[in-house]
């Protein structure tokens, strides 16, 4: 079905209040967009990160009376009569298909390719992971996933056991298995992530070597040669006592989902038990790796 878009330009400090006003005037959804097309990165815990110049965009049903919606918005103290806005008709699209068409095979490191399940692989001789992210996070397009995949590609995983803590789509665990790991264990709090990981493992022919657990189901004393956790800085700090015991002595740890400005705080939480490597950075994100003492 077609939609109508109403766009208001404001500043970050007023964006959320105007977003609420758009919802009250009949919008079915509201998004915030940088006026200058600057991407917004993952916010800090509890933070809504907005730009200095922000477009607040309300999406309305095509049958909505936009004159009435605008009249209601004119009563808002931040807007007033004749406030500046732009109304556009949006064409109807199959957004899932459009996303699929723009998701291309990607190379990480020397050997590894992540390939959408609906596209042909670019190199039959490479290590190819066929991925359908489904309802779970993890396609390789985000810098944190890219950092983790490149790290795994650079390791000798032959015969090793790998734990993917916060497995999402299963991309890291499956990549580890395709890179030579004998066994991988995926842990996630979201049942949809467990299902997506299972489906992707079957698609890649490694389901028999991938164990998947919700946190309350994981076995006691679980350990691995390599542990990777691509989540967020807050949980990485809070769960440090739990994550730190997962690698065996001399085992490797890889952490991401961390903004560069958060790296030192995460390092501090793990420094006592790990010999840490220099922090690797990609755009505003970073990866922290180390060896269990």
TrEMBL record:
- What does the entry list as the binding residues for S-adenosyl-L-methionine? 145, 166, 188, 230
The UniProt entry, under InterPro entries, shows: Ribosomal_L11_MeTrfase_PrmA, Ribosomal_PrmA_MeTrfase, SAM-dependent_MTases_sf
* One annotated GO biological process: methylation
Coiled-coil annotated spans: none
Instruction: Cite the EC number.
Output: 2.1.1.-
Q: Where in the cell is it found?
A: Cytoplasm
Q: GO molecular function: any one?
A: protein-lysine N-methyltransferase activity
Q: Does the keyword S-adenosyl-L-methionine apply?
A: yes
Chemical reaction(s) catalysed: L-lysyl-[protein] + 3 S-adenosyl-L-methionine = N(6),N(6),N(6)-trimethyl-L-lysyl-[protein] + 3 S-adenosyl-L-homocysteine + 3 H(+)
What keywords is this UniProt entry annotated with?
Answer: Cytoplasm, Methyltransferase, Ribonucleoprotein, Ribosomal protein, S-adenosyl-L-methionine, Transferase
Q: Name one Pfam family in it.
A: PrmA
The record's annotation in Gene3D superfamilies points to: Vaccinia Virus protein VP39 (3.40.50.150)
One GO cellular component assignment for this chain's record is: cytosol
Report the sequence similarity comment from the record.
Belongs to the methyltransferase superfamily. PrmA family.
Protein's job:
Methylates ribosomal protein L11.
- The name on file for this protein is Ribosomal protein L11 methyltransferase
Which species expresses this protein natively?
Jejubacter calystegiae
Q: Which gene encodes it?
A: prmA
